[in-house]
Design goal:
By secondary structure, the chain is of the alpha/beta class. The chain contains eleven helices and nine strands. Strand 1, helix 2 and strand 2 form a beta-alpha-beta unit. It binds 3-phosphoglyceric acid.
């Protein structure tokens, strides 16, 4: 499959999950605990960020325990991290920004990768490298839906789809998901690192269930 086809397949994959928790784990045990909540609540997606040393182990543990989980790696800033994410069992990777070296590494390895963009120039560069699925980061701080709609308008004919993250919460997720160009949204609000560390699993479950209900309500 060409890299562009892989990027299109990523759009389809993300369009089935719609909301993706962006996660920073302290250890694999924490990841498994959250994985159980995600699977039980029907929000079967996770972006495990390489912001902690535990990322690779967490991806491996989640892949083994929950084969049905749509599992991506986040904050992938180097080809080395990309390779580790792939080997651990991630299905795709994303990053906050656009590093052509990482995109080329993904192309060489036939691995779905969505870089982050927040300007037209970045969209054009990402597209020229083969990407049609892109993260829109930092969504709210950069200008939110107003910016995304204006910025994506000239590229409508290219079939580019965006995953906004950065300031997305239950309060604005539905508005983002109501826009055709938005394939899914992501965010840390569902399971914050400090809440997992503090053992606030009931709060996290409530957040995850609310997100799953929101997705269901959008499908009606
Ligand atoms: C990301 O990497 O997608 C962001 O850190 C998510 O931003 P948030 O913390 O505002 O959800």
């Amino acid at each position: 499959m060409s890299f562009r086809a892989l990027s299109q397949a990523l759009t389809e994959k993300l369009s089935r999950v719609r909301i993706i928790p962006v996660l920073s784990f302290h250890d694999s045990e924490e990841a498994l605990r959250l994985g159980e909540i995600l699977m039980e609540s029907g929000l079967c997606a996770a972006e495990v960020t390489f912001r902690t040393e535990a990322a690779e182990g967490a991806i491996r543990a989640l892949r083994k325990a929950y084969p049905g989980l749509c599992l991506g790696a986040g904050t992938v800033l180097s080809v080395e991290q990309l390779t580790r994410a792939m080997d651990a069992g991630a299905e795709f990777a994303v990053a906050p920004g656009l590093n052509p070296e990482v995109v080329r590494g993904a192309v060489e390895r036939d691995f779905a990768f969505a870089p982050g963009v927040c300007t037209p120039s970045e969209i054009e560069l990402a597209y020229s490298l083969g990407c049609v699925t892109m993260k829109f980061f930092p969504a709210e701080a950069a200008g939110g839906l107003t910016l995304l709609k204006a910025m994506s308008a000239p590229y409508k004919h290219l079939g580019i789809r965006f995953m906004p993250t950065g300031g997305v919460t239950t309060a604005n997720a539905a508005a983002y998901l109501g826009v055709k160009e938005v394939v899914a949204v992501g965010g840390t609000w569902l399971a914050k690192a400090e809440d997992m560390a503090a053992g606030k699993w009931d709060l996290i479950r409530q957040n995850v269930v609310a997100a799953a209900q929101l997705i269901q309500s959008l499908e009606k």
